Amino acid sequence: MAPIKWIFSLASLILFTAPALAGFSSSSSTNVAIYWGQNSLGQGTGPNAQQRLSYYCANTEFNIVPIAFLTTISNPTLNFANAGNNCTAITGSSLFYCPQIEQDIQTCQQTYGKSILLSVGGSTYTEGGFSSSALATAAANNIWTIFGPQTSNTSIPRPFGSAVIDGFDFDFESTVSNMIPFGQTLRSLMNTAQSSTGGKPYFLTAAPQCPYPDAADGPMLAGAVYFDAIWIQFYNNYCGLQSYTPSTGTTQNNFNFATWDNWAKTVSLNPNVKVFLGVPGSSTAAGSGYESGSTLGQIIAYSKSFSSFGGVMIWDASQVFANAGFLDSAVGYLGQAPQTTFSTSTVSSTSSAAASTTVTGSGTGTPTTSSAAASSTGPGLVNQWNQCAGQGWTGGTVCKPPYTCVYLSVWYSQCE
Ligand SMILES: *[C@@H]1O[C@H](CO)[C@@H](O)[C@H](O)[C@H]1NC(C)=O
Ligand SMILES: *[C@@H]1O[C@H](CO)[C@@H](O)[C@H](O)[C@H]1NC(C)=O
Asked: Most buried among 68, 73, 152, 290, by the most CB within 10 A?
């Protein structure tokens, strides 16, 4: 009896101390957004290859998933790296239909309380926006029929079928024109849908680079478009996490969260907009800006001191779930109890079941869209310092040039 009682009370303890994560909250400073879709770690097979969306949603340490990316808008196309291999072409359209993602969006929303956004753009986006405001408005209406609430028109190509996303994320990284009417039209379509369905909220977010004002999203952010949240890319830039100096305390030189907090309060159309600290999920996720351990803890503590702070954004799922302990510690620093029932290390160790499935290359049903990640990392190649061989190893075995796989022990070889 005693042990059963003990287990029972332990279970209820876990149950009652679990943070109530239910999608994006504009009143919370402990939101966690993790991008999914680009398999940016670049593993084609093995436990660290990008898994299907619902696999990650079972983790309770984050509540928002921007799915990356809708890579073109005017003639819409998607790229989900290896997850695209599980989709089938839609006749008469450049889009593909993804039954797993359709099912997983619904599971993520209904079972795991996640907010699912479709991220538009990415670093490979080259359309440059729209040549006129009328084309921008038409594109917003078109995108909404494709990803917003389903209508009776069965000719509309719907990559996610009956699933309805919770909004859009803008990740523009090059010069774009006429984005204000695009953003404003999407926002107004979302507001109309929200009031007609009795309140299901839709969200609009953006991922500017840290230099202020953002070169691409700047005009929209300059009080023109109503955003619920922005997650700043504090990486690959001089103002990234690496520029945070603990010794100067509240006076930071290059690390500019303060500038963005001031934007939120004095420039943003939504004065209650949330500003997230965007971080790389591992040392290979970005060229610069990766911080972990107590340094990350200090940066989160500093950023939390601003009232606009909304939480942390991480690029991306494939990187952070291969970086054991990082998500736990980030969530710990945020002040949200890490879940003992389902940690990042559990995710990695249980994923071997999917390891035998080959997810790169041209399997049957491969859509017309390239299966390669839109990010610069080559699929299947192992990054420097990562494991490439060893007893029981099922991950990638070919190193990214110019590195070679160096034997260290029967258990472990790494690319160097
Ligand atoms: C693709 O489908 C297979 C088979 O259902 C599944 O195991 C795998 O996780 C899927 N991959 C992605 C990246 O969605
Ligand atoms: C249905 O959708 C198709 C494709 O977007 C469009 O061409 C057509 O005009 C729509 N039909 C109606 C009745 O709205």
From this structure: 68
Catalytic residues, which ones? 173
Cα–Cα distance for residue pair 40/282, rounded to 1 Å: 11
- Give the start-to-end residue ranges of the domains of the chain: 10-334
Strand-pair partners of 315? 280
83 alpha carbon, closest ligand? 1
CATH 3.10.105.10 fits 10-334, yes or no: no
Q: Which two tokens stand for residue 228?
A: 């619920």
Q: At residue 412, what are phi and psi to the nearest 5 degrees?
A: -155, 125
Residue closest via CA to ligand 1's atom 13 equals 83
Q: Identify the weakest region by mean pLDDT among 151-160, 264-273, 405-414.
A: 405-414
What's the distance, CA 337 to chain centroid?
Answer: 21
Q: What is the pLDDT at residue 392?
A: 65
Pick the residue whose CA is nearest to atom 8 on ligand 2. Answer: 155
Integer Cα distance of 131 and 121 in angstroms: 17
In tens, the pLDDT along 132-164 reads: 999 999 999 999 999 999 999 999 999 999 999
Amino acid identity for residue 269 in this structure: L
Ligand 2 pocket, residue 156 CB under 6 Å: yes
Instruction: Tell how far the Cα of 152 is from the centroid of ligand 2, in angstroms.
Output: 10
